[in-house]
Amino acid sequence: MVSSRKTQRGFTLVEMLVVIAIIATLAGLLLPALSSARASANASASANNLSTFGRGFEVYASSHDGNYSSGAFDHFRDGDIRRNGWVGDLIGTKVANPGKSLDPAHRNKVSAAVGDYSGAITSNQGNLAAEGIPAGRWDASDTAAAVVGAANFGGAPQARDLWDEGYNTNFVTTWHFSRGDPTDAAGYAAGGKGLNDGDGPLSQNIVSQARTTAARIALMAPSRAVPGAAGLIDAAAAADIKSFTGTSIAKANDRMTASFTDGMVVPFTDATMGGSAGEFVHDMSGIYPLHQPKTADGAGGYAPVLFADLHVEKVTDTVSAGSTSSGDGFIGNNLTGYALDGPMYDEASDLIWLKRLRNPQ
Fold it and tell me: Looking only at Cα atoms, what is the longest distance across the chain?
């Protein structure tokens, strides 16, 4: 009796290569779509976070004489962040929580203020020494040495408590929002950023007197990383931050994000500005147009920006230094040298008011 046995045939090498090629082709078609969908979702989340912040500012203003905030999120210049600054203001309104509403597309997740209040990095010690502790914004027992040394905040449990409550952000406020109009030309031209360098923070009263509409007064946007040594998170600082956050949210060689933009420090006399010759204009280099991948020629990339009428709008990076028609990664002037020419001014000023909000008295 003869037994028959089925012969099982496997895949040939050619067939396997064909299947692999098909999978690779499908993956190549699918990945860009997934990347685009992820970028779109991140941009929508960023804009939604800004809109929520705007509603929180309105709630805060309703019970604080029309003031949209009590100042910048700045551990040294604006005082105890548990009582002063827009981050604490929003946490108090219970409308928004900045630490839990980060820009998801941003690589850098930790504000310079966190480095300061935690004691991990004291990036503004020089500013504190020059400007002093803001009157009435720290307890009488808080000395300059204690604030700089983070004796009241460093390590667990207080720094951990602040982090858990939401005292962090990777959005940046504008000078108009945090400081209003500059009060001393020499001071703001020299880079002064203290409470006394402006007549704000922004309020409903200031908006009503402004030389422009609320729809052009920018409040905040995704924040650029702090440049230079002051913004760099080294291995020791990353370990310190992990000790109170409980996560590796900041790694060595990451950077902290800026708290608020510089003042009106860019002298601009071009006739296209439409103002008095030599009027200083707002430095917007702290806003990071990180959304939407750039095109091959460098153009593209935008920042969702919250305005005083509470709408959020895309402000696109379209030109670079030297007036070339490609993006340079900045809105308006660039970060190094604060250069500004006609096209760079137009890039930002089409949507954002860059000059003083009110005429000098």
Answer: 115
**345 backbone dihedrals φ, ψ, rounded to 5°:** -65, -45
For residues 261 and 284, the answer to whether their CB atoms sit within 8 Å is: yes
> CA 217 to CA 212: how far, in whole Å?
8
60-84: b (≥16 Cβ within 10 Å) or e: bbeeeeebbbbbbbbbbbbbbbbeb
Cα-only R_g, the chain: 24
pTM for the whole thing?
A: 0.85
Q: Are 285 and 265 in contact (CB under 8 A)?
A: no
Give 187: exposed, middle or buried? Use CB within 10 Å, 0-12, 13-18, 19+.
middle
Q: For residue 186, is pLDDT > 60?
A: no
Q: Which residue has the higher pLDDT, 147 or 311?
A: 311
Residues 6+ apart with CB under 8 A from 78: 70, 71, 72, 84, 85, 134, 137, 195
Q: Residues 205, 66: contact at Cβ < 8 Å?
A: yes
> 22 CB contacts (<8 Å, ≥6 apart)?
none
Give the residue, 186 or 201, on which the prediction is more confident: 201
